[in-house]
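Folding Query — how this chain folds
Tokens — whole-number codes for backbone shape
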Amino acid sequence: MVALRERMTAQHPLHGMFANVFENLGGEAALLEWAEDNPAQFFAMFTKLAPAAIPKGTTGAVHLHVHSDLAPTALDRGIVIDNDSPPSKAEGRGE
């Protein structure tokens, strides 16, 4: 797979060498054979190599879900959030 080797070499020459060795060892077919014999090691490696779900520098809306059914902890410092009522001025979220 010349395209893979070229892309990897563009990132770093060492990456290109590893892509070349990967292909010479049998490429995806050899990786699949190894993964079938070593599923735990394969998934451990996969989770380390897989990119983050949201790449760094990504901007956009943030969705926050508060689990109001969880018991308060010391981190809450006595703050009570009532998701069923509009925020009051005393909570510092009013106008």
